[in-house]
Amino acid sequence: MKKILIPTDFSKNADHAIDYALNLFRCSRANFYFVHAYADEAYQIGGFKSKTNLDTIKNKLESKVKLAIENTLARIQDPVSNPKHNYSSMVVFESLVDSVNNLVDQENIDLVVMGTKGTTMEKTISFGSNTVQVFKYVKCPVLAIPDNYKYQEPKHILFPTDYQLPYKRRELKLLDNIAGFFKSEVHCVYFTQFETLSHRQEDNKRFVEGTLSRSYLFFETQQANSVQEGISNYRENHEVDMLVMINSRHSFLEDMLYRSTVDKMGLNTEVPFMVMQNISR
To answer: What region holds the UspA domain (predicted)?
Structure first.
């Protein structure tokens, strides 16, 4: 039974991410958890001079967002609910990252799915600040869905990797289950200027090969000055339906997330983007 957590701010982008997740796992038995964290909204409203004022704002917001999340559940079950799916919802007075991490721990969540930007984001921005914060700090794989992405099965998955660090079996198995169900090609591409792998890299590569056993697996090496450049060039010449990257210490993705934003670093992906955290769970 898959456990999928979907944070929502009730925007069109959030609804789009929900629809993508329901489609992606439409033939899988799954529990879907919908959460809205509204602490930031309350503090942004401001104007409270005492705890009483804050409680008043919290109560008003809570009533509003409970109705909104009930409407979300009603929408996805109209006209009928998928019999393989179970749905639950919650609204919490916490920050987004805290609420997601708490639920990941409490419910042993397999995957977090969310939109790439919220209600106030500019069209030129690919990833909103909330999405980047979740990429950085949530201890669970995260799948971000671009707001203009039309659903299609992830038949061609790009997985850039340098084989430097050991992978976590649970996270690779999540990818393998998706790829196996859709009979997808997973292209493990090492963007580098070096010809050969070290013994450690060879060991990690064999682990990937053994774990992604249900996938149509391809190992490729391509010359590139940077991972960013390599991904961009690869996507120009190959069909890609999903991008998967590892966010681990000293990785390209960690460096990108902590030094700047995804947009400033130039990784403006137009396809679903899965970030795996490489954490034992």
So the answer is: 1-146
181, two tokens: 């169900």
CATH fold of 2-145: Rossmann fold (3.40.50)
What digits encode the pLDDT tens for the residues 142-179? 999 998 899 999 999 999 999 988 899 999 999 999 99
* Amino acid at position 39, single letter: A
Domain range summary for the chain, segments of one domain joined by +:
2-145, 156-272
Q: What is the CATH number of domain 156-272?
A: 3.40.50.620
DSSP E strands, 42-108: 85-92
Which strands make up the sheet holding 142-145, listed edge to edge? 85-92, 30-37, 2-7, 111-115, 142-145, 273-276, 242-246, 156-160, 185-192, 216-223
Q: Quick check: do 2-145 and 156-272 share a fold? A: yes
